[in-house]
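Structure, all two chains, one model.
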Amino acid sequence: MKKIMLLLILMIIPSYALAVTDEEIIQEQSIQSHINDTGSRILNANKIEQRVAFVYDKTEKQSLLKIDPSLTDRQVVLYSGNYKFIQNDDELAAFLSRGILYAMKSYRGFFNGYLSALQIKAAPKKFEIVADKRAVDFMVNAGYDPIGLITFIQKSCPQKRFDRFSNKNLTSKRLAVIYEYIYMKYPYFLENNKYFENEHYQNFLLTSVNNRRMLLNKIKSGSKEELDYE
Amino acid sequence: MNKKIHCILQILTVLIIGTQYAISADLVQDEIVSELLKDKNYTRPCVNTGYNYKDTKYRTIRLTIIADINSEKDVYEGQTVYFESVDDVYLNRKRILKKGDFIPARVETIIKSGMNGIPASIIFGNFKINNIEPRQLEDTYEVFGQDRSLWVFPLKWALTPLPPTGSLTNFIKGGRAKLKTNEIIELKFYPHR
């Protein structure tokens, strides 16, 4: 009897394990397929003639020692640590659009783009803002709402302590620059803001009062100065 | 009986609307939208999802800027600049752009020159040409300054064994992005898209 029981258990366990693995694979395939579709739509809509691949990676986040694969392999890698913050297509498009910009940059310049990749690695702060702005354009051209970029960053990027002595911009500064860019170029999305009642957008409004006041004063005064956001 | 039901319905309606107002009053308001954008009725920007890449042949539209522009001088993002067509452009034997026609564009992004010889750049976009749809035209055109990182990076690596001399290359800035009136830029025009 014991032997039969043991045999039964041994038969059930591997099939159960296999079922779980199958489920995981199907889930991964579904995520990968969704990423591919969104990424290709952005590439096509923006007439991007360089090849860029999109990969979903189950690992939590990129290793600190690894260089961004958008620059080296021209592939946008979406780690599970980022994917868990994505709640809709706009936010997925936001993430991919930023990666596409980096991949595009790595095609241009000396040594088949190697020098451009080095420049981005050497001055990430400068190109972070450029990637945010161009991501807004890519999203709009492909039919996505650029406010999704604001909600995605609001949720997923922590606020650094310093701006001047860091190789990353303050998240609040990035968000303010994106908001200003959308205001200047695509005011339609602010006027008809489908994210207005979204909790994360509301949180952005709550935490960006001073920056938006600075922008309001700039617009009212007609100043062309670049604002030093907090 | 009907009156009672009617009365109850009215009270419920008032309560529901009142609750909605109370909820919206709790929301953080965006004063930029309420003061500057309200009732402006902006149209939704063009979406380019109806693409067709069966025929990807393109021709170039040659343009020159009508006033010199420099990334470090009197230029701001959102500024409208004007280009001039260098040649006549024909499509199906019909002239769609005349030599000397003015074409407005916008300064989309200015990237200031950075440390280690990284050049400045200006990204122009939103070119508006009559008879040509935005999706048929290259989206943006980027002008770069002199790229000094080509020799600054090797110099930096060569000096790295002698600290802190390698770090001194950080102070070498890249070139400014300039576009002069005699420089011709080429925009791709895809007539079959």
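Chain B has a mean pLDDT of 86.
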